[in-house]
Amino acid sequence: MKTNAATNKTESDLIEEQKYLRQGLAELETLRAREWEYRILLDESSDPIFSFYPDGQYRYVNRQFALGIGKEPEEVIGKKIWDIFPKEEADKRFAIVRGAFESGESKVIEVRVPRPDGDRYYITTAKPILDDQCQVISIICISKEITERRLAEMALQELNETLEQRVGEETAKSLAQERLMIQQSRLAVMGEMVGNIAHQWKQPLFALELILQNIGLDHKGSKLTDGALKAYATDAMCVIRQMNDTIDDFRNFFKPNKEKQHFRINDSLEEAIKLASHNFINHGIEIIWRKSSESCLAFGYPNELVQVLLNVLSNARDAIVEKKVRGKLHVQVEQGMDNATISIRDNGGGIPDEILPKIFDPYFTTKTKGFGVGLYMSKMIMEYMGEISISNIDNGVEVSLTLPLASTNQKARATGKT
Asked: N or C: which end of the chain has fewer CB within 10 A?
């Protein structure tokens, strides 16, 4: 009975072992099928995938990785990295995964792969594969190509590195252009001022000529007494002082103001009208200045304001002359709460609507001999201390110059009161 029991137990154990064996074989087949599926997926991946043993031997590479180095997967698997790449590059590549071997932690690094058609850039994730004792047995690496992004970043970095230099160069060009335009504007105004000086000197020069002729005639007729000579000398000195005052007026105009200061708007307006008056008189243009009883004290650049006013007056004169009308120019100053506005209106026919938006553009002019910088420079000057605007009115143009008024403290300093 004991023998039969032992035999029955052995047969039962064999059946059980066979059952486990069949299950193990089935699981093995399933694992092989899954491995095959995974290999297909890895091989068909568009990202390079590869794995290393701790000694640097390739355990696996997919087709995309092999394609990237110009080989077949079979030519790489089983070889060490130093068999595939030159030593310096192999050391650099293996150093990437060595940290994962040593720490047992995943690493993410950027890799540059030299290629004949240009370098390729990848982000590579190196992940350790552990055994049952948590020992690293291999490293699997998955790379994602970032060539386009990296090249864009490099281009942006290069752009940033040269941006400051380029900004400096463009700023220098802009400043040089601005200085040229300022010089052109000054030369244009200077040319007109020289003409004005010539007009204002004609009468005193004629007076000096008469004095000299009278001296000669009196001397010839033996009538040149000491008293007569003294009177002639006094008259001549008066004429010379008048001519000297004229030169001082124009010389002061060409002195630029380096800093903002307090000044009376009426003073600048009076100076501009005085400098331009002979040209207006010669063309029969009447200037109607409605002076205010209030003295507007502004804060800005008085000489530069005179330059703007002269440019505005010159444009109004040219428009009236071209229109061939009996010219009239209306000038007035209106004071507000915080600013004052100079208004200059002419009857020169106005500005065509299609031209009006362009009048402040640099080098834009409708004059055959114009530079096209006058209004542009006037706008630039006014931007430092106020505003300038131009609009059409009935049969003419109105130019408005708005300036900030001096504050209460500034007025006190300007008048010497505290």
From this structure: N
In the block, residue with structure tokens 């408005």 = 400
CA distance 56 to 130: 16
| Residue 116's CATH number | 3.30.450.20
CB hemisphere CA count around 13 (13 angstroms): 6
Total number of domains in the chain: 3
| Rg of the Cα atoms in the chain | 47
Q: Which two tokens mark 261?
A: 């200061």
Write the DSSP symbol of residue 140: E
What does the DSSP assignment read for 217-235?
HHHHTT---HHHHHHHHHH
At 35-71, the pLDDT tens digits run 565 566 666 677 888 888 888 899 888 888 888 788 8
Nearest to 385 by CA among 293, 294, 292, 302: 302
Q: Which helix (H) or strand (E) holds 201?
A: helix 147-220
Q: Do 144 and 206 have their domain in common? A: no
d(CA 322, CA 310): 18
Kindly report the length of the chain. 418
Q: What is the pLDDT of residues 91-124, one digit of tens each?
A: 877 877 787 888 888 888 777 777 777 788 888 8
137 sits in which H/E element: strand 136-145
The label of the residue with tokens 């160069």 reads 169
